[in-house]
Amino acid sequence: MSPIFFWLFSALMLGFGACVILNRNPVASALSLVVSFLGLAALFVGLDAYFIGVIQVLVYAGAVMVLFLFIIMLLDLRKERRRKIKPLVVLGGGAVVIAFVAQLGFILRNFPAGARTLEPLTGPFDDTKNIGFTLFSNYNLPFQAVGVLVLVATIGVVILSKRELK
Amino acid sequence: MLTLNDYLLVSGLLFALGFAGVLFRRNLIVIFMALEMMLNAANLSLVAFARFNLVDGLPNYNGQMLVFFIITVAAAEVAVGLAIIVALYRARQTVHVEDISTLKF
What we know:
Structural class of chain B: mainly alpha
Number of helices of chain B: 3
Number of strands of chain B: 0
Radius of gyration of chain B: 18 Å
Order of helices and strands of chain B: HHH
Shape of chain B: elongated
Radius of gyration of chain A: 21 Å
Largest interface: A-B, 80 and 73 residues
Order of helices and strands of chain A: HHHHHH
Shape of chain A: globular
Strand content of chain A: under 5%
Strand content of chain B: under 5%
Oligomer: heterodimer
Structural class of chain A: mainly alpha
Largest sheet of chain B: none
Largest sheet of chain A: none
Protein backbone atom coordinates (compact mmCIF):
# COMPACT_ATOMS: atom_id res chain seq x y z
CA MET A 1 0.00 0.00 0.00
CA SER A 2 1.32 3.40 -0.81
CA PRO A 3 2.24 5.41 2.30
CA ILE A 4 -0.25 8.14 1.38
CA PHE A 5 -3.17 5.73 1.63
CA PHE A 6 -1.79 4.22 4.81
CA TRP A 7 -1.64 7.59 6.57
CA LEU A 8 -4.99 8.63 5.09
CA PHE A 9 -6.82 5.55 6.39
CA SER A 10 -4.93 5.68 9.69
CA ALA A 11 -6.00 9.28 10.18
CA LEU A 12 -9.60 8.32 9.29
CA MET A 13 -9.54 5.45 11.78
CA LEU A 14 -7.95 7.42 14.63
CA GLY A 15 -10.00 10.58 13.97
CA PHE A 16 -13.33 8.78 14.08
CA GLY A 17 -12.03 6.69 16.99
CA ALA A 18 -11.53 9.96 18.88
CA CYS A 19 -15.09 10.97 17.88
CA VAL A 20 -16.37 7.78 19.55
CA ILE A 21 -15.12 8.83 22.96
CA LEU A 22 -15.77 12.58 22.53
CA ASN A 23 -19.39 12.45 21.37
CA ARG A 24 -21.95 12.62 24.15
CA ASN A 25 -24.69 11.12 22.01
CA PRO A 26 -24.37 7.28 21.92
CA VAL A 27 -25.82 7.08 18.39
CA ALA A 28 -23.13 9.45 17.06
CA SER A 29 -20.52 7.37 18.89
CA ALA A 30 -21.75 4.16 17.28
CA LEU A 31 -21.80 5.66 13.78
CA SER A 32 -18.28 7.06 14.26
CA LEU A 33 -17.16 3.60 15.30
CA VAL A 34 -18.55 2.18 12.03
CA VAL A 35 -16.39 4.61 10.01
CA SER A 36 -13.39 3.83 12.21
CA PHE A 37 -13.83 0.11 11.52
CA LEU A 38 -14.10 0.74 7.79
CA GLY A 39 -10.74 2.57 7.93
CA LEU A 40 -9.30 -0.39 9.80
CA ALA A 41 -10.64 -2.79 7.15
CA ALA A 42 -8.87 -0.67 4.51
CA LEU A 43 -5.62 -1.05 6.47
CA PHE A 44 -6.15 -4.83 6.52
CA VAL A 45 -6.60 -4.85 2.75
CA GLY A 46 -3.40 -2.81 2.45
CA LEU A 47 -1.62 -5.55 4.40
CA ASP A 48 -2.81 -8.15 1.83
CA ALA A 49 -5.25 -9.65 4.36
CA TYR A 50 -8.26 -9.49 2.06
CA PHE A 51 -10.32 -12.12 3.86
CA ILE A 52 -9.79 -10.51 7.27
CA GLY A 53 -10.67 -7.12 5.75
CA VAL A 54 -13.93 -8.48 4.36
CA ILE A 55 -15.00 -10.16 7.59
CA GLN A 56 -14.05 -6.98 9.43
CA VAL A 57 -16.60 -5.10 7.32
CA LEU A 58 -19.24 -7.84 7.46
CA VAL A 59 -18.96 -8.82 11.12
CA TYR A 60 -17.88 -5.60 12.81
CA ALA A 61 -19.16 -2.73 10.69
CA GLY A 62 -22.21 -4.80 9.76
CA ALA A 63 -23.43 -7.15 12.45
CA VAL A 64 -21.85 -5.91 15.68
CA MET A 65 -22.50 -2.22 15.13
CA VAL A 66 -26.09 -2.86 14.04
CA LEU A 67 -26.52 -4.76 17.30
CA PHE A 68 -25.14 -1.75 19.19
CA LEU A 69 -27.48 0.65 17.39
CA PHE A 70 -30.39 -1.70 17.98
CA ILE A 71 -29.71 -1.79 21.72
CA ILE A 72 -29.35 2.01 21.86
CA MET A 73 -32.72 2.27 20.13
CA LEU A 74 -34.26 -0.33 22.46
CA LEU A 75 -33.06 1.46 25.61
CA ASP A 76 -33.98 4.83 24.07
CA LEU A 77 -30.81 6.49 25.35
CA ARG A 78 -30.78 10.28 25.20
CA LYS A 79 -27.82 12.52 25.07
CA GLU A 80 -25.98 12.23 28.35
CA ARG A 81 -26.59 15.12 30.63
CA ARG A 82 -23.49 16.79 31.96
CA ARG A 83 -22.31 15.51 35.27
CA LYS A 84 -19.77 16.92 37.61
CA ILE A 85 -16.33 15.80 36.46
CA LYS A 86 -14.14 14.52 39.23
CA PRO A 87 -10.68 16.11 38.79
CA LEU A 88 -8.89 13.22 40.47
CA VAL A 89 -10.37 10.70 38.02
CA VAL A 90 -9.47 12.84 34.99
CA LEU A 91 -5.96 13.44 36.32
CA GLY A 92 -5.33 9.78 37.13
CA GLY A 93 -6.82 8.49 33.88
CA GLY A 94 -4.93 11.07 31.82
CA ALA A 95 -1.67 10.16 33.55
CA VAL A 96 -2.19 6.46 32.79
CA VAL A 97 -2.99 7.09 29.11
CA ILE A 98 -0.05 9.48 28.65
CA ALA A 99 2.26 7.00 30.37
CA PHE A 100 1.02 4.31 27.99
CA VAL A 101 1.67 6.41 24.88
CA ALA A 102 5.12 7.44 26.15
CA GLN A 103 5.98 3.82 26.86
CA LEU A 104 4.81 2.89 23.37
CA GLY A 105 7.06 5.50 21.76
CA PHE A 106 10.01 4.42 23.87
CA ILE A 107 9.59 0.74 22.99
CA LEU A 108 9.08 1.40 19.28
CA ARG A 109 12.25 3.48 19.15
CA ASN A 110 14.27 0.58 20.61
CA PHE A 111 12.68 -2.19 18.55
CA PRO A 112 15.17 -3.27 15.85
CA ALA A 113 12.75 -5.56 13.96
CA GLY A 114 10.38 -2.61 13.61
CA ALA A 115 12.51 -1.12 10.82
CA ARG A 116 11.50 -3.91 8.44
CA THR A 117 9.84 -2.76 5.26
CA LEU A 118 7.05 -4.38 3.27
CA GLU A 119 8.52 -6.98 0.95
CA PRO A 120 6.48 -8.02 -2.08
CA LEU A 121 4.73 -11.37 -1.87
CA THR A 122 6.32 -14.07 -4.03
CA GLY A 123 4.35 -17.22 -3.16
CA PRO A 124 1.18 -18.42 -4.89
CA PHE A 125 -1.04 -15.80 -3.31
CA ASP A 126 -4.64 -16.89 -3.01
CA ASP A 127 -5.73 -15.42 0.27
CA THR A 128 -9.08 -17.06 0.99
CA LYS A 129 -7.90 -20.45 -0.23
CA ASN A 130 -4.80 -20.31 1.97
CA ILE A 131 -6.85 -19.27 4.98
CA GLY A 132 -9.32 -22.06 4.33
CA PHE A 133 -6.56 -24.66 4.16
CA THR A 134 -4.95 -23.38 7.37
CA LEU A 135 -8.29 -23.17 9.16
CA PHE A 136 -9.42 -26.70 8.31
CA SER A 137 -6.03 -28.39 8.75
CA ASN A 138 -3.97 -26.84 11.56
CA TYR A 139 -6.85 -25.09 13.30
CA ASN A 140 -9.64 -27.61 12.96
CA LEU A 141 -10.15 -28.24 16.68
CA PRO A 142 -10.17 -24.52 17.69
CA PHE A 143 -12.61 -23.89 14.83
CA GLN A 144 -15.05 -26.46 16.20
CA ALA A 145 -14.53 -25.18 19.75
CA VAL A 146 -15.48 -21.70 18.54
CA GLY A 147 -18.62 -23.22 17.02
CA VAL A 148 -19.59 -24.55 20.45
CA LEU A 149 -18.76 -21.18 22.00
CA VAL A 150 -21.10 -19.37 19.59
CA LEU A 151 -23.86 -21.89 20.38
CA VAL A 152 -23.38 -21.33 24.11
CA ALA A 153 -23.42 -17.56 23.59
CA THR A 154 -26.67 -17.82 21.62
CA ILE A 155 -28.36 -19.85 24.35
CA GLY A 156 -26.98 -17.49 27.00
CA VAL A 157 -28.40 -14.45 25.22
CA VAL A 158 -31.83 -16.09 24.95
CA ILE A 159 -31.80 -16.94 28.68
CA LEU A 160 -30.59 -13.46 29.65
CA SER A 161 -33.23 -11.77 27.53
CA LYS A 162 -36.11 -13.57 29.20
CA ARG A 163 -38.21 -11.20 31.20
CA GLU A 164 -38.37 -13.38 34.30
CA LEU A 165 -35.17 -15.13 35.34
CA LYS A 166 -36.00 -18.32 37.21
CA MET B 1 8.53 2.99 2.58
CA LEU B 2 6.21 1.76 5.31
CA THR B 3 7.85 -0.04 8.18
CA LEU B 4 6.48 -2.36 10.82
CA ASN B 5 6.88 0.45 13.36
CA ASP B 6 4.34 2.61 11.50
CA TYR B 7 1.69 -0.08 11.84
CA LEU B 8 2.55 -0.75 15.48
CA LEU B 9 2.38 2.97 16.25
CA VAL B 10 -1.07 3.34 14.68
CA SER B 11 -2.29 0.21 16.43
CA GLY B 12 -0.92 1.43 19.76
CA LEU B 13 -2.61 4.81 19.33
CA LEU B 14 -5.94 3.12 18.59
CA PHE B 15 -5.47 1.03 21.72
CA ALA B 16 -4.72 4.19 23.73
CA LEU B 17 -7.92 5.80 22.41
CA GLY B 18 -9.98 2.80 23.45
CA PHE B 19 -8.24 2.77 26.82
CA ALA B 20 -9.00 6.46 27.35
CA GLY B 21 -12.63 5.76 26.43
CA VAL B 22 -12.91 3.03 29.06
CA LEU B 23 -11.33 5.28 31.69
CA PHE B 24 -13.18 8.51 30.98
CA ARG B 25 -16.63 7.63 29.74
CA ARG B 26 -19.42 6.81 32.16
CA ASN B 27 -21.94 5.33 29.73
CA LEU B 28 -21.79 1.52 29.73
CA ILE B 29 -22.55 1.21 26.00
CA VAL B 30 -19.80 3.67 25.04
CA ILE B 31 -17.37 1.85 27.36
CA PHE B 32 -18.28 -1.34 25.52
CA MET B 33 -17.56 0.31 22.15
CA ALA B 34 -14.18 1.46 23.45
CA LEU B 35 -13.45 -2.15 24.43
CA GLU B 36 -14.16 -3.17 20.84
CA MET B 37 -11.68 -0.54 19.65
CA MET B 38 -9.00 -2.04 21.88
CA LEU B 39 -9.66 -5.53 20.48
CA ASN B 40 -9.36 -4.15 16.96
CA ALA B 41 -6.08 -2.44 17.77
CA ALA B 42 -4.70 -5.84 18.80
CA ASN B 43 -6.03 -7.29 15.52
CA LEU B 44 -4.22 -4.63 13.50
CA SER B 45 -0.86 -5.38 15.10
CA LEU B 46 -1.40 -9.13 14.63
CA VAL B 47 -2.14 -8.72 10.92
CA ALA B 48 0.88 -6.40 10.56
CA PHE B 49 3.16 -8.95 12.25
CA ALA B 50 1.76 -11.68 10.00
CA ARG B 51 2.42 -9.63 6.86
CA PHE B 52 5.93 -8.54 7.79
CA ASN B 53 6.99 -12.08 8.77
CA LEU B 54 6.91 -13.76 5.36
CA VAL B 55 6.95 -17.58 5.17
CA ASP B 56 7.81 -18.89 1.67
CA GLY B 57 6.85 -15.54 0.21
CA LEU B 58 3.41 -15.63 1.85
CA PRO B 59 2.13 -13.87 4.98
CA ASN B 60 2.35 -15.95 8.14
CA TYR B 61 -1.22 -17.25 8.27
CA ASN B 62 -1.01 -18.21 11.95
CA GLY B 63 -1.37 -14.53 12.84
CA GLN B 64 -4.41 -14.13 10.60
CA MET B 65 -5.99 -17.23 12.13
CA LEU B 66 -5.68 -15.64 15.57
CA VAL B 67 -7.40 -12.52 14.22
CA PHE B 68 -10.18 -14.69 12.79
CA PHE B 69 -10.78 -16.29 16.19
CA ILE B 70 -10.61 -12.94 17.99
CA ILE B 71 -13.30 -11.53 15.69
CA THR B 72 -15.53 -14.57 16.25
CA VAL B 73 -15.15 -14.49 20.02
CA ALA B 74 -15.63 -10.71 20.07
CA ALA B 75 -18.92 -11.08 18.19
CA ALA B 76 -20.14 -13.62 20.78
CA GLU B 77 -18.92 -11.35 23.55
CA VAL B 78 -20.82 -8.37 22.17
CA ALA B 79 -24.04 -10.39 22.01
CA VAL B 80 -23.75 -11.58 25.61
CA GLY B 81 -22.53 -8.20 26.92
CA LEU B 82 -25.37 -6.28 25.32
CA ALA B 83 -27.88 -8.80 26.69
CA ILE B 84 -26.43 -8.19 30.17
CA ILE B 85 -26.69 -4.41 29.66
CA VAL B 86 -30.34 -4.78 28.63
CA ALA B 87 -31.04 -6.95 31.70
CA LEU B 88 -29.30 -4.34 33.86
CA TYR B 89 -31.35 -1.56 32.32
CA ARG B 90 -34.56 -3.46 33.05
CA ALA B 91 -33.56 -3.89 36.68
CA ARG B 92 -32.10 -0.44 37.40
CA GLN B 93 -33.32 1.89 34.59
CA THR B 94 -29.79 3.20 34.01
CA VAL B 95 -26.66 2.50 31.97
CA HIS B 96 -24.57 5.05 33.84
CA VAL B 97 -21.76 3.40 35.78
CA GLU B 98 -21.88 5.87 38.66
CA ASP B 99 -25.50 4.92 39.40
CA ILE B 100 -24.48 1.29 39.87
CA SER B 101 -22.48 1.34 43.08
CA THR B 102 -23.33 -1.87 44.95
CA LEU B 103 -19.73 -3.08 44.73
CA LYS B 104 -18.29 0.25 45.73
CA PHE B 105 -16.13 0.03 48.84
